[in-house]
Amino acid sequence: MNALAAVGEALVLIGTFFYFLSALGLIRMPDVYNRMQTATKSATLGSLGVIVGVGIWALGTDFGSAAWLTKTIVIAVFLLLTNPISAHALIRAAYKSGIPLWEGSVMDKYREHMEAKAKAAEAPEVETPEETPKEGGEE
Amino acid sequence: MLKRALAIITLLIIGYWLAQGLAGVPFGEDRMLVGQYYLDHVKEQTGAVNAVTAVVVNYRGFDTLGEVTVLFIASTGVGALLWRRKKERTAKTEGSIVLTTGTRLLVPFVMLFGAYIFIHGHLTPGGGFPGGATIATAFLLLYMAFIVYEIPHKAFEKVEGAVGMTYVIVGLIGLAIGGYFLYDWIWQDWQWGAENIGRLFSGGFIPVIYTIIGLKVGTELSGIIDNMVKEEVSE
Questions:
Q1: Where in the numbering of this chain does the MrpA C-terminal/MbhE domain appear (chain B) (predicted)?
Q2: Is the CB of A70 inside 8 Å of chain B's CB atoms?
Q3: Distances (CA, A) of A81 to A48, B111, B231
Q4: How far is A89 from chain B (nearest CA, A)?
Q5: C-alpha B109 chain-centroid distance
Q6: How many domains does chain B have?
Q7: Which residue in A47, A80, B72, B129 is deepest, having the highest Cβ count within 10 Å?
Q8: What does the DSSP 8-state code read for residue B203?
Q9: Does A85 touch chain B (CB under 8 A)?
Q10: CA dihedral for A125, A126, A129, A135, sign (positive or negative)
Q11: Per the CB < 8 Å rule, is A88 touching B95?
């Protein structure tokens, strides 16, 4: 038991705690978008903690080598890059297939933006290059 | 309701019957009849440290050839079933900018990792089939993110056929040199890489075969994706 192993164990503990929070959020949150929020962010952070923590933990033990840490860092970077993209694609697909927001939501700027775009497409005689100031005026 | 109840009862009976059969098998005990032989001799007989790929490619190479054939038939069958005179991609929406940029960034790494898996088949878990599937995943990513992407058909079909043939040719060379099909001539006769077992340049013809299988599986699964994603268009 040395400092590296202790750091690794602490990281793994923090990671599992965030995993727990993420699972809790999945149960507690009201709609799809809020659930994706908790699941993505805390699960990504939790995985990073656990994965890198295992690498550092292995460095501190007698069988460990730098190969462990290298592999875990590669996996962590891959997760860090891909998890937000998949969450983004999932949420976008959910929105496009018409899943409603939570009834307590107060604002849906994206729908306003899409409706303004559709209106602009319906009335082409207003000359399309004036698109940007119109959006600015709405906000 | 009656149908469902009958199905559940039948499944329960079958499950009980299977459990009765399995109850006679002692789990957790030493049941290795052939397995011990493999574990004891895998290093000096094949040069690989991964016993699974050594068994799959060397000891029981016919199985692997059969599996490759099954995949090839599946790919050909999908192609034949979904054959149309004119097929195009009819996807309507491009993936969002995040998705397309992410795909552009990730595809080379996914392909690199797939190649890593099948090249290191004799050292690490994996081999030709997982590596090929990983490479096909990269092409699936491209198909999902871009509405106009298509695999380069000419190159893909040629590679698929050529590597399938190379597998058989490697086996036939073994037949000519050693007397039986899929004889590991690189290891048994040349002793190539005998002094560095456990490193990259070892393992007899396992890396060669797995490179072939990886390319074949990758191109085949990509071809299946291509066939299934495209739709018929009327003129």
A1: 33-86
A2: no
A3: 11, 16, 32
A4: 7
A5: 19
A6: 1
A7: B129
A8: S
A9: yes
A10: negative
A11: no
Residue of B134, B125, B113 lying closest to B48 (CA atoms)? B125
Domain ranges of chain A: 3-100
Q: Which domain holds residue B129?
A: 51-232
Task: Provide the residue-wise pLDDT of chain A in tens; the chain has 139 residues.
Answer: 688 889 999 999 999 999 999 999 999 888 888 888 888 889 999 999 999 999 988 887 777 678 888 999 999 999 998 999 999 999 988 888 888 888 877 878 888 888 888 888 887 655 444 444 444 443 3
Per the CB < 8 A criterion, the answer to whether B131 and B121 are in contact is: yes
Token duo for residue B194? 């005998």
Fill in the DSSP letter of residue A2.
-
Q: Which residue has the tokens 């080598």?
A: A65
Q: Please, are residues B72 and B221 in contact by the beta-carbon 8 Å criterion?
A: no
In a domain, B69, yes or no: yes
Dist. CA B232–CA B88, nearest whole Å: 6
Give contacts of B 100-129 with A, CB under 8 A: 102, 105-106, 109
**Tokens linked to B48:** 């690989």
A28 phi/psi in degrees, rounded to 5:
-85, -25
Using a CB-CB cut-off of 8 Å, the residues of chain A touching B96 are: 88-89, 92
Q: Chain A interface, mutation test: which of B94, B98, B111, most A Cβ atoms within 10 Å?
A: B98
Amino acid at site A44: T
